[in-house]
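note to self — DONT lose this again. spent like an hour looking for the file last time. sequence + predicted structure for the chain T wanted, 309 res
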Amino acid sequence: MKKSLKIFTVLTLLLITFTGSAFAQGLLGYGMAGSNVKNLQNDLHTLGYPIIWIDGIFGQNTKDAVMNFQKDNNLSADGIAGPNTFAALEKNLGTSSTNSSTLDRLLKYGTRGEDVRNLQNTLNSLGYNAGSADGIFGKNTKNAVMSFQKNNNLSADGIVGPATLSKLNSTSSISKETSNRGSVASRSIIEKVIATAQSYLGVPYVWGGTSPSGFDCSGFTYYVLKQYGISIPRTSTAQYTQGTPVSKSNLQRGDFVFFNTSGSGVSHVGIYLGNNTFISATSSKGIAICSLNNSYWSPRYIGARRILY
């Protein structure tokens, strides 16, 4: 008993000695506790390194997060937060309020912040379904990033670094589809219509629905255009008579795309987003973004009409 007590006392003194000297040197390591550790945990969590409990106790989870952060920033991955680690944290956190035109930190699964929200809005505007722009880098955002990367010959790792950001910031993806699309004002309306349509992602399908509580396909397109003072017929069949025909190879953002899902004639309509995707009210998922090339929609595609100019 005395021997065990002596060993415990020695270990406790060693821990106190390490902890005291670590604090003195500005180091945070395994076994330490306090407000400094809690601040460290908050910073790591903000940068997308999962912390199970932000409790001010430097346990194995916190150590793992520190080591992962160190690896990502080319630091010695010893799991001890020292001056170099804190400097890197400060640099990364200093970009948390940046806009989508600049980025010094990686955006990846679990990251949160305004720059993630900007990323989501950019992806959605390009036709990649990042879900709601909530500033949280979740599964939908990661899948959207990977799809964008694949389509642009980038490494499809789902992480937004300098190369992916540069490609996203390029206006070519949109300008190619809108450069011959009337005035700047009319292009602005087209983008606003698309943004409004995407704001209803996930709204349930309701037969005959024409409101945000529930839409059917033509009720959705009818409602969205109505918000901008643009009047179109209520049904998909009638909407197919509007505007001018557009070949599939010449589709541009904002064009209406039509499908035969019932076996005879036009029975479904959506709004083209670019990159072979469109948004519509589906009976299975409500308002959703789908690919024109998938096995369901591709054989049912009938044609397109340019209603917005």
